[in-house]
Amino acid sequence: MQNLELKVRCLGAMTLQQVEALACSAGATYVRTVKQRDTYFLATHARLKLREWWREDEIVATASVVDVAMNKTAGERARGQEAAEGGREGGREGALLISSLRQERAGTRTCEYLVYPVSEPIVLRALLSSALGVLVVVEKTRRFYRYGHTRIHLDEVKDLGSFVELETVIDEKITPGEASAEHSALISLLELDRLPVVPYSYSDLLSGHCD
């Protein structure tokens, strides 16, 4: 899979709220709020992380009431959520193993990645920690909005502060040119060109692996 990505640093929580207000005004759809713990391992050829996440909002509880009324089973709910979110982060909690290769440059860049759902994250984390070693652990609260093919991430990262990430997904439903146009338009709508661009991952910032 492939994304167009941009990360900017917000000047405090107030700026993050302003970006969120602009996203709502532009017609972005709120999806969820999650806590995420990303454990980065000392992989050689790509970034490798185990993402463990759990919901922090009330939408899941509300949805559960509706599902019970419709006599849906837990398995049916899980399958529906996975289909709706591409198997990424539907439901109350979960874990993903993610391998990614991204361009190391400022501004919008391309990222290629592979995602694998994990059923026993504690066991896998212990196994990979023993085999590879841990580079760094990133903890954050993420509010997630969707605009077209773009995911808008409003992040509060432990020990780092507030950030906005855009991820425009390039797939069979959108050409690279269309994705680039949507990405650029959203940067203008959210006024992200006024904020400092961060060309590093959160793992780089926390581990000090920045130029």
UniProtKB/TrEMBL annotation:
<dbReference type="InterPro" id="IPR023577">
    <property type="entry name" value="CYTH_domain"/>
</dbReference>
<feature type="domain" description="CYTH">
    <location>
        <begin position="1"/>
        <end position="208"/>
    </location>
</feature>
<dbReference type="InterPro" id="IPR008173">
    <property type="entry name" value="Adenylyl_cyclase_CyaB"/>
</dbReference>
<protein>
    <recommendedName>
        <fullName>CYTH domain-containing protein</fullName>
    </recommendedName>
</protein>
<dbReference type="InterPro" id="IPR033469">
    <property type="entry name" value="CYTH-like_dom_sf"/>
</dbReference>
<dbReference type="Pfam" id="PF01928">
    <property type="entry name" value="CYTH"/>
</dbReference>
